[in-house]
Specification:
Its EC number is 2.3.1.9. The chain has 13 helices and twelve strands. It is of the alpha+beta class and about 375 residues long. The protein has a domain at about 270-385: 3-Layer(aba) Sandwich (Peroxisomal Thiolase, Chain A, domain 1), CATH 3.40.47.10.
Length: about 375
């Protein structure tokens, strides 16, 4: 079977809610990463077979197939198509999977995969809220079929995060200690320039250049302890949850033939890609089963993996995942995660992959594994090998 290779990966800095990127149109935000990717790789844009972007809540500035629009906004050839996909939080990681599968099938040679989300402009779950406002439909958990199967119970990421904390006996102090480490790691990574290779600065209308992630905080356990829980008597607070933010990201996937034809140098090889479903009510436990399955299918063990990225939707998600997989914290989210860096839903998958790739190169590691929890109780897993 043909193999798929990652040529390069870039991302914008992550803007905090209402921050530097809040006023940037989603198509322009995505176009920025795409254009930077094309420029950095030197690839002939006319040779690209497809553009696949992840994005959730595709209304307003994110409607109308933003992948196609972003490519055109970037000034790139009309004949290259684009498609926008939604696998919730894993949307852009799934974009990479579809891109790699196209290459591995032998039907494509060059595919741009990435994602975009302006959560300041289009709030999370906006599409569902708008639908209800206009009386078009009820939420998914109120469909007759859903109610027959799962009953009338709350289905939300917040409830899931709380259920996970309770089931795995994770105290509020455990969650806050993990969150603090995420911020400390992210701030150290920024100070040391670890993100410099992946971040492409954005020129803003006011003439300034936005080049550094805005979300990491100089916080403390004392500050976190003062916050009210999201549910009365609960353990989950805003401090242990991923931040709402804005960003885009993109990477180039190529076949071996394309590497030769277009004189491209690969940075990594795709070793494994899979997606697995789990209980949709528990929702955020998906990465546990998905990681076990991925390692088994890849013929690898936890000890074979040099670096892990498990998206920090909530601290409880990653702590439970580490407990069940045996992944050590010193190898997990070493430059911080969504709690510190933010979780721009549609863009997070390829944002994380850019970070994973660069950190493998910085540390000399061989294998990196990436996974994330997703709405509906799903989880993608990608394993890459540094070249």
């Amino acid at each position: 079977m043909p193999e798929a290779f990652i040529v390069d990966a870039v991302r914008t800095p992550v803007g905090k809610r209402g921050g530097a990127l809040a006023g940037v149109h989603s198509a322009d935000l995505a176009a920025h990463s795409i254009a930077a990717l094309v420029e950095r790789t030197g690839v002939d844009p006319g040779a690209v077979d497809d553009v696949i972007l992840g994005c959730c809540d595709t209304i307003g500035s994110q409607a109308g197939d933003v992948a196609r629009t972003a490519w055109l906004v970037a000034g790139l050839p009309d004949h290259v198509p684009g498609v926008t996909i939604d696998r919730q939080c894993g949307s852009s990681q799934q974009a990479v999977h579809f891109a790699a599968q196209g290459v591995m099938s032998g039907t494509q040679d060059l595919v741009v995969a990435g994602g975009v989300q302006n959560m300041s402009a289009i709030p999370i779950s906006a599409a569902m809220v708008v639908g209800q406002q206009y009386g078009f439909s009820t939420p998914f958990a109120e469909s007759p079929g859903w109610l027959e199967r799962y009953g009338d119970q709350e289905v939300s990421q917040f409830r899931s995060a709380e259920m996970i904390a309770e089931r795995w006996d994770l105290s509020r102090s455990d969650l806050e200690a993990y969150a603090l480490a995420s911020h400390e790691r992210a701030r150290a990574a920024i100070a040391e320039g670890r993100f410099d290779r992946e971040v492409v600065p954005v020129d803003l209308p006011d003439g300034t250049s936005f080049a550094v992630d805005q979300c990491p905080r100089d916080t403390s356990l004392e500050k976190m302890a003062a916050l009210e829980p999201l549910a009365p008597g609960g353990r989950i607070t805003a401090a242990v949850a991923s931040q709402i933010c804005d960003a885009s990201s993109a990477l180039l996937v190529a076949s071996e033939a394309a590497l030769t034809t277009y004189d491209l140098t690969p940075r990594a090889r795709v070793v494994h890609l899979s997606v697995t479903g789990d209980d949709p009510v528990w929702m955020l436990t998906g990465p546990i089963r998905a990681t076990h399955r991925a390692l088994e299918r890849a013929g690898l063990t936890v000890d074979d993996i040099d670096l892990f990225e498990c998206n920090e939707a909530f601290a409880s998600v990653v702590l439970a995942w580490m407990a069940e997989t045996g992944a050590p914290h010193e190898k997990v989210n070493v430059n911080g995660g969504g709690i510190a860096l933010g979780h721009p839903i549609g863009a997070t998958g390829t944002r994380i992959m850019a970070t994973l790739l660069n950190e493998l190169e910085r540390t000399g590691g061989r294998y990196g594994l990436q996974t994330m929890c997703e709405g509906g109780g799903q989880a993608n897993v990608t394993i890459i090998e540094r070249l």
